[in-house]
Design goal:
Layout (H helix, E strand, L loop, with lengths): L10 H12 L14 H13 L10 H10 L18 H12 L13 H14 L9 H12 L25 E6 L9 E2 L2 E2 H18 L3 E4 L9 H11 L3 E8 L9 E6 L7 H18 L3 E7 L2 H4 L5 E8 L5 H5 L2 H19 L3
Parallel strand pairs: 1-4, 1-5, 5-8, 6-7
Antiparallel strand pairs: 2-3, 6-8
Helix pairs in contact: 4-6, 7-12, 9-12
Length: 352
């Protein structure tokens, strides 16, 4: 989808406003269908609540989160489909099942095979028809049991593979994800578009990883812009050990600079291995590039939420900074960034 941004007008903006109002966010200061300052403020508040980049723009992740937030448990039948159902109703189902000791895997609001298996296990245990459908009878039984166990400890888990073993890079399966495709590229620095900078760093990172013995792949072609969910699905289909997404940052002004990293976390559930991976990558990269360490932060972006392996998204610098932007356009700086990211991944893999 094309981003819906401040200043836009039309039916798409009116749809965003309707969804925001339904979630309790006031947009009445703007005319219907006009993306004015009140709508932008409501979008930013919603993004902050959902741990997304609070830029006031309705891009892919924000639109997906708006769709998810519109579902309440009981609004529809929940069962395993292709593509998988997703929404806040799925997340609530997962939390209720996990509180009762049924392992749904990641509590991410995505109704995948783990949630299906947990639902069927629950139905079997309480004597309901085992059809894998969360309909009224199943939800009523789940609600009555869940109320009796609200104080219980959740059984939620974050990744499939248990504790992280200390291992070298040799044999590690890594998906390197150049996040910013040409269709989303907005800035040109020193004769290079920002998507070219991102892809070049990803290509160099893959080379470093292969040289260190890892089996590394790149998630997209140089001229392609697949959505984040498709790239996360590729990581799942390939069953990689780790996903590292590379991007750059931009701000309206020219003062912001530094390296940031993100891992999956929504305020209740956190990927601990993703957090450690993000910490290593941001610490090493900021030190090597001699720029600000903007640290690692929790996020619910699709590339992190929907991948089933430890994952991080790293912004290697700000293309809008007066000094850092031009540096990102130099081969030496991009090589240093790629080398630093490879070392961050190595340190994480070794358990250091």
């Amino acid at each position: 989808m094309d981003p819906i941004s401040p200043g836009d007008r039309g039916d798409a903006v009116q749809d965003v406003q309707r969804r925001l109002r339904a979630l309790g966010h006031a947009v009445e200061g703007d005319d219907p269908g006009t993306f004015g300052p009140h709508t932008a403020a409501a979008v930013r508040l919603f993004q902050q609540e959902r741990r997304l980049t609070a830029d006031g723009v309705v891009g892919h992740d924000t639109w997906t989160a708006l769709l998810d937030a519109g579902w309440q448990l009981g609004d529809r039948l929940l069962y395993l489909t292709r593509p998988w159902l997703r929404g806040d109703d799925v997340r609530r189902l997962q939390k209720a099942l996990s509180r009762l000791g049924f392992d749904t895997g990641v509590t991410d609001g995505i109704h995948g095979p783990d949630t299906d298996a947990a639902l069927r296990d629950f139905q079997h245990n309480v004597g309901l028809p085992v059809d894998g459908i969360a309909g009224r009878r199943t939800l009523d039984q789940l609600a009555s049991l869940w109320r009796a166990h609200q104080a219980a400890t959740s059984f939620e888990v974050i990744e499939r593979h248990g504790e992280q073993p200390a291992r070298a890079l040799a044999g590690l399966h890594v998906l390197v994800d150049p996040a910013l495709g040409p269709a989303r590229s907005r800035h040109d620095i020193g004769g290079m578009a920002e998507h070219e900078i991102v892809y070049d760093v990803a290509r160099r990172l893959r080379g470093h990883l292969v040289a260190l013995g890892a089996q590394a792949l790149i998630s997209r072609a140089p001229d392609a812009t697949p959505p984040p969910a498709a790239r996360a699905r590729l990581a799942n289909d390939l069953d990689v050990d780790v996903l590292v997404s590379v991007s750059v940052a931009a701000m309206p002004g020219s003062d912001a600079r530094g390296v940031s990293a993100y891992y999956f976390g929504d305020g209740e559930v956190t990927s601990d291995r993703g957090r450690r991976l993000a910490d290593h990558c941001v610490d090493v990269t900021a030190a090597r590039l001699r720029t600000e360490n903007c640290h690692a932060h929790a996020s619910t972006s699709a590339i992190l939420r929907e991948s089933r392996c430890p994952a991080t998204s790293v912004e290697i610098g700000f293309v809008t900074h007066a000094d850092e932007g031009p540096l990102l356009a130099t081969a030496a700086y991009r090589q240093a960034a790629a080398s630093a990211l490879a070392d961050g991944i190595r340190r994480w893999a070794s358990g250091s």
